[in-house]
Write a structure and sequence with these properties.
single chain, about 350 residues, mainly alpha, DNA polymerase, domain 1, hpI Integrase, Chain A, 3-stranded antiparallel beta sheet
Length: about 350
């Protein structure tokens, strides 16, 4: 006889011996198991548990998907050193990707096997990373910087002046919050910069008046948003749970907010994101192209020019390292080569011979 589920409880059917003798299939059904999370969901969970950035999460997930599709949707557990090597070789030979791109793909696969699948295989340590070429950064002269900045206007000009005047990275500038700008101490606090590090850099005196006027306009916009039931911003980590109303406070607002409001799918809050970096990138690209100086300058070129011009002015390289947020002074030393005079201001013998 086959047991039926009783009312109010779940009883799983078990086929009795008399059913087996009657020629019915004998199978015992256990409790239903929760479905296991998909591989890419496990990757996302592992990345978020380690507080990696969203860009890293997106990049790693994309590389892992490409790796799986490259091998015709085989599960990574079924693959090993030969498949990883074949994928990376294809990127370098057929895809002709840069060394940094190939190394990013390798980092994503190492994360997959070590942190997600929990596989400690000896071939992971034996994989060789592609060697990135050591290239000198593009640097604008002071007059070229003046020309480029002079052709920009509005918010893009203000942001570009901060990139050059404070040595900020593009996203560091976009993600500035009101509380990060200290007019009294003439400094900017860069929160959670590259390598998850905070640092302090200068607030250029040349931009203080314009920046203060801009922030006054931003405050008026924020107050108008509050009256419309909006005025929220995204908060880092778990601060939104710890301080439920902090997302509407003035101190947490973006210095450079977006022009549109969006509705967060999880909280339902009407928020403003910071201005997208592509706005400044496009503006700088147009101006640099019209300048016609032949240099492939980008937003990051302002940061390179900031470091080079400080060294030209005789500032100590350790000071420049701190302002840039470099972990290793060797990274900052590259700007001494751009000076064409070496770290100790060595004079060329040709200059001594012909210009003395």
């Amino acid at each position: 006889m086959i047991a039926l589920p009783s009312r109010g409880s779940v009883v799983y059917p078990v086929v009795r011996e008399d059913a087996a003798h009657a020629g019915l299939a004998v199978r015992e059904i256990g409790p239903a198991e929760a479905p296991k999370p998909r591989l890419l969901d496990r990757v996302r969970e592992a990345i978020r548990a380690r507080h990696y950035s969203r860009r890293t999460e997106k990049a790693y997930v994309d590389w892992i998907k490409r790796y799986i599709f490259f091998h015709h949707k085989r599960h990574p557990m079924e693959m090993g050193a030969a498949e990883v090597t074949a994928f990376l070789t294809s990127l370098a030979v057929q895809g002709t990707v840069a060394a940094s791109t190939q190394n990013q793909a390798l980092s994503a696969l190492l994360f997959l096997y070590r942190e997600v699948l929990g596989i400690q295989l000896p071939w992971l340590d034996g994989l060789v990373r592609a060697k990135s070429p050591q290239r000198l950064p593009v640097v604008l002269s002071r007059e070229e910087v003046r020309t480029v900045l002079g052709q920009l206007d509005g918010v893009p000009r203000l942001m570009a002046v901060l990139l050059y005047g404070a040595g900020l990275r593009l996203l560091e500038c976009c993600r500035l919050r009101i509380q990060d700008v200290d007019f009294g101490r003439n400094q900017i606090v860069v929160r959670d910069g590259k390598g998850h590090k905070d640092r302090i850099t200068m607030l250029p005196a040349a931009v203080k008046t314009i920046l203060a006027a801009h922030m006054t306009q931003v405050r008026e916009q924020h107050q108008a948003d509050l009256r419309r039931g909006a005025g929220w911003v995204e908060l880092p980590w778990a601060l939104a749970r710890k301080y439920p109303n902090a997302g509407r406070e003035w101190a947490w607002q973006w210095v450079f907010p977006a022009t549109r409001i969006y509705v967060d799918r999880v909280s339902g809050q009407r928020r403003r994101h910071h201005l997208h970096e592509s706005v400044l990138q496009r503006a700088v690209k147009v101006v640099v192209r019209s300048a016609g100086n032949g240099k492939r300058a980008t937003c990051h070129t302002f940061r390179h020019s900031f470091a080079t011009h400080l060294l030209e002015d005789g500032y100590d390289i350790r000071t420049v390292q701190e302002l840039l947020g470099h972990r290793d002074v060797a990274t900052t030393m590259i700007y001494t080569h751009v000076l064409n005079r070496g770290p100790a201001a060595v004079r060329s013998p040709a200059d001594r011979m012909f210009l003395s």
